[in-house]
Amino acid sequence: MQFPKLTPLQSRIVVSLAASLIVIVFYLSLSSPHFAYAVETDSIAPKDPNRPPLLGLQDRLGFTERYSWDDDEVEQNYEPEFAELERGISELAPKSQNLNNNTPGKRSIQVGDGPHYWVFQNETLWGTQAPGIKRLRSPLVDITDWGTFQNSTEQQNSPEGTRGVYVSLSVCDQPSSTSGTPNDAPPQLELYISFSNPEPGPGNSNYSVPVDAGFGSSTLNASAAIYFAVLAPPSSNFNGKYSYELAVSIDAPYASYVDTTFLNVLDSDTNATLLETNVTANVTGPLNNTEYQQWMDGTPPFSLFALKNDSAIWGIHKSFCGLKNHAQIKGDPTDQQPSSVNMSMTDRAGGRPKEQFYIQNLNGSSAYLAIPAIDGTSNQSGGGAVGGGGLLWAPTSFRTKSDYNCRVIFNLPFCSEVAYAVPSNQHQAFADLVKWYDGEAQPLYVNFSNSLQQIPCNATSSAQYSLARNCTDCASAYRNWLCAVLIPRCEDFSSPSKLFKPRNIDKSFINGTKPSADLNPIFTHGNNSISYLTSLSSRYLPIDAFASPGPYKEVLPCADMCYELVRSCPASLGFACPLLGKGLELSYGKPDPSNKTNVTCNWLGDPDKMSLGVRRGQSLVLLTIACATALFVGYLA
Question: What is the pTM of this model?
């Protein structure tokens, strides 16, 4: 068939139409939904906080291989077929982990591993501060470096344009020894801080924070993001992991350590010890004192950790989470589970609130460390709480007895100042001892009270028997003296102190043996034969019939207790103390000013009165000498 012959104009029109049709068909082919289907997906995979970035990328790329993932690291358990691609993916994962205010970052790190990088972002630094914390019912007394641990946290004075930041590193677990000496402490973790370098380390950081016994802290001023690095030094003698908590706060230290002791050892027996804190508040009764009632009636605020002195935990004993994980003995007043630590409040020895700890189930003749603590604030602890990481004080050491002839008693209803070991035996129950000793003292006090009622105690001050003392002072002094002489303080017979009085030396120890004849008492003062006779029994004879203790040594009552009784009571009651060289040294002891750590005599009551009594005695002597001198000078004139 012959095509019609077109004119040049018609040819150009046909070509243009054909080209236009081709363009239209091509455009429709690209925009038509009938050629292919695709699932709409997010451009970025949802972030799962429990999976590393690498796993999310693998899912999107369709990889079937997986990593085994724990809290701290990714362990590869396959041989990747796409090594170059794998390296590229891993470079996309962030090297630094974010730290939030008052929320610790928790990780584990192998010996010789690291660094772990962390960052406290600028927006977190300049976030809203929390209100002041309340750790206790009222500020503690007698703590010179309490600082930011008071009830209300006051921000430190920071230069303009900066904010104060509190940093703490707590080691919660540590590697085990491979050297055959399990009590060795591993090397400490290293903490580096920088204001500009995202990867700080030795030689390229602004700060290196010392870490000691599992704890390191620093306070600094910052104006922008802060970068941290945690490293674990290499060691051939240890194997395993450290776990740690790195916390940053703009409010107050998350975890804290006070490098002063806060505990006093009252006494120990073979299987138990009694401790108490320093005075917590400078308040005394009466009971209408609100602050006093808050301390005495509320839940005891302090917890306690105890451990053997040779324990491997010594490497983390300044870390709250370390002690919480590994201390052999733990006492928490909020824990409802049975514990070997009994905690309660007391106002013994001065009438001011203190917390006491009675630790049981200890080993005999063993050295221990006791560490008081506060778990968080008064109402919360842990991550997210200001100061939620715990507060520790320096450890206090104590040692248990070995002879089973002494038993600690306390909380006696009448002799309430008694809180020490008394003559006993291993079969005597605590409650029976408390009831018997207290019951022996009460009837004797009733006789004294009847005599005191004959004194005009309610007369005007000028008509009373003394301008310095009254009947209340007399009654208190007599009660303390009576309880001290009737309830002797007991020490092991093996104690080397020559200040203690041997008792029951003809009795047998628990193993059936008797004291050596060479250990018969020999005193510097007094008649040795009298000393020997008084050492054959207890001071108060009914003790031997009831408690049947073996050989022990008595910590004699302080002579100041006798002097205090004579000073406080009317002369008509006839109290007098024996003289030195004529029986005083056999019945009473005296404090040793050079011995600040060990008990040298037994004192009941306010400890301030013991030193006060000595000073008053010295003052009376000086006053007498001054008066005599004045009279003599007047006579000469």
Answer: 0.78
